[in-house]
Amino acid sequence: MALLILMPNKDGRALSEALQDIDPNLDIRIWPETGNKQDIEYVIVWNHPPGELTKYPNLKVIASFGAGVDHIFKDHDLPENVALTRLVDDSLSGQMCEYIAGVILNQRLRLTEYREYQAAGIWTPKEPRPGNNVCLLGLGSIGREVARYLANLNFAVSGWSQSPKDMDNIATFQGPEALGKAVADADYIVCLLPLTPKTTNILDNTLFNKMKKGAYLINAGRGGHLNEDDLMDALYQQQLSGACLDVFKVEPLPEDHPFWRHPKIYLTPHCASVTHLDKAAAQLHENYLNMKNSRPLLNRVDPTKGY
Ligand code: GLV
After folding, report:
1. How do residues 243-272 score in pLDDT, each as one tens digit?
2. What pTM was estimated for this model as a whole?
3. What angle do CA 231, 232, 238 make, to 5 degrees?
4. DSSP character for 170?
5. 238 CA to middle of ligand 1, Å?
6. Distance 44 CA to ligand 1 centre (A)
7. Going by CA atoms, what residue is nearest to atom 2 of ligand 1?
8. 68 CB within 6 A, ligand 1
9. Which CATH number fits domain 2-89+275-292: 3.40.718.10, 3.40.50.360, 3.40.50.720, 3.40.640.10?
10. Cα distance between residue 78 and residue 53, in whole Å
């Protein structure tokens, strides 16, 4: 019984060492040095080559090295009857809470604007930007924590999700027909949705036109949620006052992409919530033992929903 690390663009050796620290007896292989493929029962993946996972006849679990699993589902040649899991941990949600609050407070307190004034030697005190309503798109394990965090900072928070969610002090909306209503009063719209066929390009002109004029968009879900041309258009038309983007259709963002130099776009390099190696290793190891001992797996993904 062996565990394979299949993360072509990440440091597989560091994860292997973190797992060996927990259990020195683990049989760990790092792709492409798989050894006998029949030995592999558990694979940890991040952006694996499509079709690769069908080559392991005894595979039981595919574990995402992150909260998102869209990188797995973009492979249309996945083995059948293999369980899928993802990472859920409080460091992922904690980082996201701070990131979203930081972006909103930066915008509201005009900190970036003052930095520009400083560079130009301008002394012009202003009122903070008005508007206290935040709408979160996505109330999964991370979205719920962000909603609570912002409510504790006295923002008026609402949330939208595909399936009904009940939360104290947070107005919740569900289903496609309630999406327009969910965003209508928001000053800040934050996308933390999973990327699925239903949510691809959900941030488009149809939705922007349902937002308050001058709303501010934050996308820390996936680049595939955003229709990039529609965002450029909504910024030009001043339907949106600005956007902060952490995720992009192509990452790293190509050098010549217009977002780099757009005055109303603030961008960060997919760093809002980063998998913590030791915490990830502990959770992956726990699930490996669950598999080995035929116990229920933690954080299973429902392939019919895609999250
Ligand atoms: C990061 O984007 C993740 O999915 O963990």
Report:
1. 999 999 999 999 999 999 999 999 999 999
2. 0.95
3. 85
4. -
5. 31
6. 14
7. 68
8. yes
9. 3.40.50.720
10. 6
